Amino acid sequence: MRAATQPFARILPLLAILLLCTAGCLAQKQNESYQLHIHRTPSPIVIDGSVSEPAWNSAEVATNFWMVLPMDTGRANVRTDVRMAYDDKNIYLSAVCYDGNIPGPYMVESLRRDWAFTANDNFIFFLDTFDDQTNGFTFGLNAEGAQWDGLLYEGGKANLSWDTKWTSKLRKYPGRYEFEIAIPFKSIRYKEGNTRWGVNFSRQDLKTTEKSAWAPVPRQFPTAALALTGVLIWDEPPPSQGANISLIPYALAGVSKDYETGTPRSTRQEVGMDAKIAIGSALNLDLTVNPDFSQVDVDQQVTNLDRFELFFPERRQFFLENGDQFTNFGYPTLRPFFSRRIGLGGVPIHFGARLSGKLNKDWRMGAMDMQTGETDTEGTPAENFAVFALQRRIFARSNIGMLLVNKESSAFESESLPSVASGFNRNLGIEYNLASASNLWTGKMLYLKSFTSGGNNSGDAYAGHLQYFSRRWLILGQTENVSPDYRADVGYVPRRGYHRGLANISHTFLPKSGPVLSHGPGLESSNFFDWQGKLADYETTASYKITSRPGDVFTASTGAVYVRLLNPFDPTNSGRAKLAPGSTHRWKFWSTKFDSRPQSVFRYGYSSQYGGYYAGGTRLNLTGTVSYRFQPYVSLAGTATYNDIRLPQPWGRVNFWLVGPRFDVTFTNTLYFTTFIQYNEQQNNVNVNTRLQWRYKPASDIFLVWTDNYIPDHAQPGQDIPGLITVRNRALVLKWTYWWNL
């Protein structure tokens, strides 16, 4: 009992420091003096990519941007002019993006939506529609007119899986490109009557390696940082949205066959629907019936040499939109809610509902309920998942949040599988999130309590951190404490029964001239203790990072590892012999990592690590990435990872290859073709995923998806070459969706 309470006592000083830091949360908005007035347009605006219409002549201009990168100490060299206007239905934005002094074509990745920011010449803007410096929206275009849209959360992180209806058009002229955007008021959420929104505009020009922003942003922060937005001042309150209901039906036909089991070919014919219903101008009710996510990107596979469950991100849009209140509660290694626990592995989702948004400027809420069906083959009962989140803003940008997660399982019985009794697992959590007005200080305090059916079965977890992040310094201290009895059946908690201490400090030097943009050392140490307070494992790493002015990044590291196994473990994770619990292992390693500059049509990178391993062995890890783009239509990319593990018997020498080429063809900004191939030697599998997507209307699509899995046939004794691969399973799906505004 004493060992369990000591870490909680050690967390109290962190709470005191967090409370002291709240003094910095009361300051005035940093870029309050950057104001842009938006007026009702005096004449109609046609979205044709030309800003010569009379309506734009009377609009106020945002120009004279500040440089963010490579240095943030002066005005931008590349000129950008931005104007905004509105009418009863839409917000309009036009921009003129002038060239720099370096000749050559614009750099773009492809015509695909939601492109990578660092690989494209682009313009993006950010709207803080509640002026709360925490949540908002982002829209933008790359230099070929491909769209970008997303939800902003936690002060400036972007969720690009969000999708909504809006229109845009871009035109290129000698020395500049121009574009116009129209965003329906019904496509966003805002507080009626509020005439102050946060706004900022960001421009990236890869030929000059310059990133700039209208309201100044220090180089260590993203231009999406809502704490650093300027102010958009309306001449009158934005118009009411009125009735705002959208229906999104889908129809699907598919065929599949499992060759491993020899089962007959099966077919699918399914229909379902999503609905979006605006509750006022700030809340949204999402409904789904019989949802299907067959068009979602496949997971990128990895060679798994970890002792604990790996994390694969959620890719299904229904769970991502407005989902930050649920999924970002806690820490990456301590999540009480992880939506991938719902409806994967062949478990059908029957229906679901989610109500989320702002109650007012200070209160935000989210409620979700999902019902899944039972599966006889897996022995999974029907389950209900309910989640409720409530958040209260305090000071300028900090907040207090609570989360309740409830999983209820019904009784289940099968002739071929043992019966499963009904049961529940519940989690209740509360956290305080610190975010200073200057964005320099961030922190968190978290407490979780779990309750599970079957007697007095409960556990808890508590954690906290404090971070200081300036232009030159990053300093972080963090602690996590998870009791052995804590359970989060709908969460992601890869290990239990531990105390953890994490410290990180790094410094950045910023030369005023020369080929190096920045460089500096870093030191990180992570220490785990079992619940009785005895050291379980640690990893300490010292590194040095160098960034060139064109954008090449090189990092060299060295470190030391200690592991005391608490459970049996196969160091190859491939079904071989296991090391005994209680055995201890120590080793040292070195590593390097390089990523080439983003403005090249040919990009490459590599990483390497060599050092000791379990049982006195060694491990060599090599990874390489290459990509080439035929602008703007074709993008070719590939990743290869090689692991060479040398251990004493009974393991011996073990090699694993992981290879993943990817082919992207964007015929237009509404027609995309992608093929992704993955060969995973550790899992003895080859996966091929091919997808054709046609966006025939805004937010309406037709998908054709082909998926194959193969078993590679390696060479038999006496053969010089491997045999042919064997088909494991195969599926073809055609899906249609339509976004219908009532």
Question: What can you see in these coordinates?
Answer:
By secondary structure, the chain is mainly beta. Among the domains are: 1-25 and 308-495, Porin; 31-234, Sandwich (Immunoglobulin-like), CATH 2.60.40. 4% of the residues lie in helices and 51% in strands. The chain has a 24-stranded antiparallel beta barrel. A hairpin with a 3-residue loop joins strand 24 (457-469) and strand 25. The N and C termini lie far apart (60 Å). 34% of the residues are buried. Mean pLDDT is 88; it is low at 1-5 and 715-722.
Question: Secondary structure elements and their pairing?
Answer:
Elements: H1 2-21, E1 35-40, H2 54-57, E2 61-62, E3 66-69, E4 80-86, E5 90-98, E6 122-128, E7 136-142, E8 147-153, E9 157-159, E10 167-173, E11 176-184, E12 196-205, E13 210-213, E14 230-234, E15 245-258, E16 266-279, E17 283-289, H3 317-320, H4 324-327, E18 349-358, E19 363-372, E20 383-394, E21 398-409, E22 423-435, E23 441-452, E24 457-469, E25 473-482, E26 498-507, E27 516-530, E28 535-548, E29 553-564, E30 584-595, E31 602-612, E32 618-630, E33 634-646, E34 653-668, E35 671-680, E36 685-697, E37 700-711, E38 726-737, E39 740-741
Parallel strand pairs: 1-4, 1-14
Antiparallel strand pairs: 2-4, 3-13, 4-5, 5-11, 6-7, 6-12, 7-8, 8-9, 10-11, 12-13, 12-14, 15-16, 15-38, 15-39, 16-17, 17-18, 18-19, 19-20, 20-21, 21-22, 22-23, 23-24, 24-25, 25-26, 26-27, 27-28, 28-29, 29-30, 30-31, 31-32, 32-33, 33-34, 34-35, 35-36, 36-37, 37-38
